[in-house]
Amino acid sequence: MGEVSAGLGALLLELPRDCLGTGTAVALGPPLRTSPEWVRRVMEGAELAGKILSTWLTLVLGFILLPSVFGVSLGISEIYMKILVKTLEWATIRIEKGTPKESILKNSASVGIIQRDESPMEKGLSGLRGRDFELSDVFYFSKKGLEAIVEDEVTQRFSSEELVSWNLLTRTNVNFQYISLRLTMVWVLGVIVRYCVLLPLRVTLAFIGISLLVIGTTLVGQLPDSSLKNWLSELVHLTCCRICVRSLSGTIHYHNKQYRPQKGGICVANHTSPIDVLILTTDGCYAMVGQVHGGLMGIIQRAMVKACPHVWFERSEMKDRHLVTKRLKEHIADKKKLPILIFPEGTCINNTSVMMFKKGSFEIGGTIHPVAIKYNPQFGDAFWNSSKYNMVSYLLRMMTSWAIVCDVWYMPPMTREEGEDAVQFANRVKSAIAIQGGLTELPWDGGLKRAKVKDTLKEEQQKNYSKMIVGNGSVS
Amino acid sequence: MIAPSSQPPLSLAHLPGRLGRVSGAGPRRVTHHPFLLPAVSQASLLRLHHRFRALDRNKKGYLSRMDLQQIGALAVNPLGDRIIESFFPDGSQQVDFPGFVRVLAHFRPVEDEDTETQDPKKPEPLNSRRNKLHYAFQLYDLDRDGKISRHEMLQVLRLMVGVQVTEEQLENIADRTVQEADEDGDGAVSFVEFTKSLEKMDVEQKMSIRILK
């Protein structure tokens, strides 16, 4: 072994000697033949590392990248998912056996924690007699107010969904205590697998995916406009999205593929995280709408727009609603262009409910293709809590989860009916998506994440109350 | 689904370890607070603490008026401002977890066992009828002088109806209400008069929030 490495070392240093030209006996040789032990060890190490890296890359290329190009799956992730599901089931059984019944505090996933009396204001206020202001009106309002403080429908939607049973990730460990040694061992094994095996693999894949996307779209962008260019750009987009999805160990089930959004239409979906975009573009190409960013996102955006027309706005242009609507109208008028992808909620919600759809997207006209996306929180929490995590730590959390499992339902296209205004149409589409995805429907604006509620809503309540106490003119 | 809290109310020292490690206005300080111990049950305290942390968006350890105003359903409540004020007695700008629980404790349902085991030497529990009525009284009593004057009544009514009702109509309502309740003719409603005018009202049921198990 020593002679081989010494020989290798000599060989490596022979090359520059030749390059420098014949005759010039560069004094590189003699010192190496008597090189110290540690240099030889380092060379050995480097050679070994090089071998591992190249085998690794070949494996990755063979098993993951090539199949992505053709859209086929080798079944490795299915096997992984089966093992994962069995492990989690076993863990759930152990936890349930191990925890004494009294100390299980039921997590309020979607069940309310207080008993609510949902009767409207009129019934709640009526009390003893007919309608006028009474001192006792304060009871109803204070009760409703304090109920809202203890539990309201909106605030809980901006934090991750609580799990019914632990899925062996530290981050979801809210109430669960030490159960048994075996469970802890499985958890430790899980940590090792996720951080030491899966994480490097996923980071490699993500890196490759993004680089390929930028390079591929730039190259395709050099071609003149033709059907070949469109076909190639689709291929590049799909391949890179598939690679990126595999970098998150994503398992996606698409339902009702016959309703996949067509060209010249608008695709709307509920929004949980930036990964939604990846999930949808793996199964079809869309034209994206959004603001131009700087940095890495900006590079990706500029490269993508060379290959096929996306709609990117400057920050200043976003404020001008007419300009935005005009450009989007132009885009969908051209039937050869890809369908636009829009998330009308405007912000990320935690995938247990659908909040108010902003009416802007529904004023453009054209056919709306609703899509419902529902993640399975047992394998990994996809919700991006932008006030808690920035993009990089969010992606790291994604890559150290078990997997991202979700269902995507394509729904029949909808158009605005006669006599229906944009707000009603938006609500109709929202209900359809909520029912399909099994999510609750809320009339509140997702903007409540950051801002206060609008005064108009308060005025409505005040109006209702005033009508009751003054209403029929019966004030004596 | 409705189960009366059969567990004896405990201090927070008995809660699972995770809660003890929470930073900020935490349970550690609460365990020294004798006032809180009978007020809510252990399980409810845990839930309320989760809720407190969820409302405290910037992880300050206390709640400000802004945090409460961000709750949509509270901001549209006609009495929303007065309810928010009730969390900040004595002009303070912050409410910590004990203060938070103290207000909410007023709305704990009255259990039969509470009245039976009433020790006359101990202070009255926060969810007694009298204390519930006192909470409602304070929603009207803007300057906390123990009396609801006609002027205060007018101001609270204005808060509740916004711009929907004219000044004249509102004055009529305020006058009528104060006259009906005022017994000693001083033009204001004291707490005793307030209690008397509502003696037929089922206060315990109307001002109770039941936390599900």
UniProtKB/TrEMBL annotation, chain A:
Residues 265-376 form the Phospholipid/glycerol acyltransferase domain. Keywords: Acyltransferase, Endoplasmic reticulum, Lipid biosynthesis, Lipid metabolism, Membrane, Phospholipid biosynthesis, Phospholipid metabolism, Transferase, Transmembrane, Transmembrane helix. One of its GO terms (biological process) is triglyceride biosynthetic process. GO terms for molecular function: 1-acylglycerol-3-phosphate O-acyltransferase activity; glycerol-3-phosphate O-acyltransferase activity. GO terms for cellular component: endoplasmic reticulum membrane. The chain crosses the membrane at residues 51-76, 203-223. InterPro entries: LPCAT1-like, Plipid/glycerol_acylTrfase. Pathway: Glycerolipid metabolism; triacylglycerol biosynthesis; Phospholipid metabolism; CDP-diacylglycerol biosynthesis; CDP-diacylglycerol from sn-glycerol 3-phosphate: step 1/3; Lipid metabolism. It holds the Pfam family Acyltransferase. SMART domains: PlsC. The keyword Endoplasmic reticulum applies. Belongs to the 1-acyl-sn-glycerol-3-phosphate acyltransferase family. This is Glycerol-3-phosphate acyltransferase 3.
From TrEMBL, chain B:
The gene is CHP2. Keywords: Calcium, Cell membrane, Cytoplasm, Lipoprotein, Membrane, Metal-binding, Myristate, Nucleus, Phosphoprotein, Protein transport, Repeat, Transport. GO terms for molecular function: calcium ion binding. InterPro entries: Calcineurin_B_homologous, EF-hand-dom_pair, EF_Hand_1_Ca_BS, EF_hand_dom. It is found in: Cell membrane; Cytoplasm; Nucleus. It comes from the Eukaryota. GO terms for cellular component: cytosol; nucleolus; nucleoplasm; plasma membrane. Its main location: membrane. Belongs to the calcineurin regulatory subunit family. CHP subfamily. GO terms for biological process: cellular response to calcium ion; positive regulation of calcineurin-NFAT signaling cascade; positive regulation of cell population proliferation; positive regulation of protein import into nucleus; positive regulation of transcription by RNA polymerase II; protein transport. It holds the Pfam family EF-hand_7. PROSITE patterns: EF_HAND_1 (PS00018), EF_HAND_2 (PS50222). Gene3D superfamilies: EF-hand. This is Calcineurin like EF-hand protein 2. Residues 43-78, 128-163, 169-204 form the EF-hand domain.
